[in-house]
Amino acid sequence: MSADLQPLLDALQFSPNNLALRQHLVRQLNGADRHQDAETLCREGLRQFPTDAALQLSLAEAYFALNKHSAAFVVVEELLSHDAGHAAAHLLHARLLLAAGQPADARAAYEQALTLNPGLADRDLGQQLEQAAPARRVPTPAAGAYGSPPTPDSDDEAEPSAQARLLGLEKPKIRFADVGGMEAVKEEIRLKIIHPLQFPDLYKAYGKASGGGLLLYGPPGCGKTHLARATAGEVQASFISVGISDILDMWLGNSEKNLHQLFELARAQAPCVLFFDEVDALAANRHDLRQSAGRTVINQFLDELDGATRSNEGVLIMAATNTPWQLDPAFRRPGRFDRILLVTPPDEPARAAILDILLRGKPLAASISPAAIAARTAGLSGADLKAVVDMAVETSLRAAMRAGRPLPIEQSSLLDAAKQVKPSTKEWFATARNYALYSNEGGLYDDILVYLGVKKPGS
Ligand code: ATP
Hints:
Blueprint: H1 2-14, H2 19-31, H3 35-48, H4 53-65, H5 69-82, H6 87-99, H7 103-116, H8 123-132, H9 140-145, H10 160-166, H11 183-198, H12 200-205, E1 213-217, H13 224-234, E2 238-243, H14 244-250, H15 255-268, E3 272-277, H16 280-289, H17 292-306, E4 315-321, E5 339-342, H18 348-359, H19 370-375, H20 382-403, H21 411-420, H22 426-438, H23 446-451
Parallel strand pairs: 1-4, 1-5, 2-3, 3-4
The structure holds adenosine-5'-triphosphate.
């Protein structure tokens, strides 16, 4: 392989300013385990193009391979400081952090890389991280922070960018087209929160105030988080995702201050989607603990939602819960989470669309038919379908290992996997049905009854 690179090396001698050639060559050199040569050429190139991301990444990769980890850290962190959306850099960062004995941070870096580019999934690294740092309850804030909650003392001095990094700010690349099905919910979101953001004057002219939040509820794994992220992508807004339990647990004693800072960050980043996962944890906290501290956090949260201290213009507030019935009615007052939408498990066409999305970019046998799999996976959530695809990928990987060559994913592997994955949403509907039948104040849960066929739409 090295001999094949000689013509390229010769060409670069003649045109040392040819950046594309240099970038290509150093990648090839790294691929051929000629890391020392790659290092030399990257450093030469960076003298001329000091912020070139491709050269920085190749240099960091060369350093990593040469066991010069500190140097690799410096380069990769420099790269991420001016290009926070560089998925491959996050991936390398994850490897470096793992090697440095920081598995939780490594996991967060890896999750960040996959959020930016799911195609970078690396099974071996994933497994090592799973063993070294099992998943925590709420991934996203740590994903940007690489695991470190803000310390109370550092809050005041922190620059917005440091805060932003700490709080997991991102610019999602996914859009509504990456969310299978949910057409009615997408339409509601367009109407209720995207259009008011895009055409504020028009809405004002009709006396429609923008603002207020949108609460998504429904069984687990049906894409609430995915949809919130795609909403941000749809309007090219920033996205901040926070688990309420993080605010309550990790920042104990400082929750109000951190909540305020979170909203401030979102306001500074407007347009921004500020997404609260497990928002019911706030309500549960209020009932269970009956502590004044819990109450202050809730009041702070409600004040921020109301825009009592500062306007929330340009901030789209979304929240998700699997247990809306635990939520304090105070949350649903006008201007707060006054729009509440049920996110149901995908129907057959939506399952086909989700499978199509999940299989994108993977090696597939010609026989693959998402529609046929969709027909046999009634009741599965988006997350269940992801489990089906993951299992089929593992089957193909095992077969490829045995064969010693890459093999495509077969329809039969997907169908076998589909038989093994049990619908995870049934239990939720059993509980939800009771609430919808017996505590359905103001028809709040009519959508559940319609979905279950207990009630006719619009009746
Ligand atoms: P939870 O209530 O457990 O937090 P959730 O409703 O927020 O779950 P997500 O975390 O958004 O569900 O979904 C889990 C994964 O399933 C997503 O990361 C995505 O890969 C996949 N998924 C779910 N629904 C869809 C969909 N409609 N289109 C594409 N992918 C989906």
